[in-house]
UniProtKB/TrEMBL annotation:
This is Phosphatidylglycerol lysyltransferase C-terminal domain-containing protein. Pfam families: LPG_synthase_C. Residues 47-232 form the Phosphatidylglycerol lysyltransferase C-terminal domain. Coiled coil: none annotated. InterPro entries: Acyl_CoA_acyltransferase, LPG_synthase_C. It comes from Candidatus Yanofskybacteria bacterium GW2011_GWD2_39_48.
Length: 297
């Protein structure tokens, strides 16, 4: 195991690992970097090029492992064991952030007495090939009415994020954060501010929705590594400036994904409220879970 501390210097090496072994929407260099703003990001790498992204927390004596190992399934236990033992032997705690069941199973098998679950979330995956943007049927009537009313009463325009000043995009994130805070929902605005400052690096497409002349929301995403027919709808943020803006923004994203020719779409990790909101556009969907937990020293 070798630990790479200068991730930008080693970007090509890390991106090669993702190209070879990546499979999760979170396996995206720039997104992993954005998710590591609370500490110093590093990458543990092995001889075959596989690795684990983590950061050392500035405020706590812990390593935060972000997402699944970027490695073949049959190699993950070995490299997880090596990194975990390395961290625990140094007297530090490990915080696993949004990892899948196989990783949690490994920890329960090997470190059960040190395990403490924080939370789990559900990730819906939808079939885009069979999705009809017309939303036919009585069960979609409320959605159709909301979309039609919004487009009838407001002037809505879609442009590339690169066409707007960054301050306008930062303003959307600030208003989104303020609205979520009012209702007691914890969100992490820093990673989205970092994404804007980084010119949406790591995304394949990013678009902003302008409502009545004012920037109000944006969508961005990328292809799931080693699955080019699947789009990861990773980013969808709006400022709640008009009723049903979230519905209109997600609908715009789904139509774009459909027109781009993707077969499936990962709608990203969702709490129960977000899961209901995202999946209301579909008759059926599949899911998987990720888990966030501590391994205490």
């Amino acid at each position: 195991m070798q630990i790479l501390n200068d991730i930008e210097l080693e970007r090509s090496r890390i991106e090669l690992a993702i190209e070879k072994f990546g499979y999760s929407p979170d396996h995206n260099f720039d997104w992993l970097k954005n998710c590591s703003s609370e500490g110093n990001p590093s990458f543990a790498v092995w001889e075959d090029g596989s690795g684990i992204w983590f950061y050392t927390s500035k405020d706590a004596n812990q390593y935060v492992i972000v997402a699944d190992p970027i490695a073949p399934a049959n190699a993950q236990d070995k490299i997880l064991r090596e990194l975990c033992d390395y961290v625990l032997d140094r007297g530090m705690t490990i915080y696993f952030l949004d990892v899948r069941e196989a990783v949690q199973d490994f920890v329960l098998k090997n470190y059960r007495d040190k395990f403490k679950l924080d939370y789990e979330i559900v990730w819906p995956v939808v079939d885009i090939t069979t999705w009809d943007p017309k939303l036919p049927g009585s069960h979609f009537k409320e959605l159709r009415n909301a979309i039609n009313k919004s487009t009838r009463e407001h002037t809505i325009k879609i442009v590339e994020t690169s066409k707007l000043p960054k301050k306008d995009l930062h303003g959307i994130v600030d208003r989104w954060f303020a609205n979520r805070a009012k209702v007691g929902i914890t969100v992490l605005p820093d990673r989205y501010h970092d994404m804007i400052d980084n010119d949406f690096g790591g995304t394949k497409n990013s678009r902003v929705m302008i409502v009545d002349g004012k920037p109000a929301g944006f969508n961005a995403g990328w292809e799931t590594p080693n699955n080019p027919s699947e789009w990861s709808a990773s980013i969808g943020i709006h400022d709640y400036s008009i009723k049903d803006l979230g519905v209109v923004l997600l609908y715009e994203d789904l139509v774009w994904i459909k027109n781009a020719g993707y077969k499936t779409c990962d709608l990203e990790g969702s709490d129960p409220q977000a899961l209901r909101f995202k999946t209301q556009f579909f008759n059926s969907f599949t899911t998987y879970k990720t888990y966030t937990f501590y391994v205490n020293k």
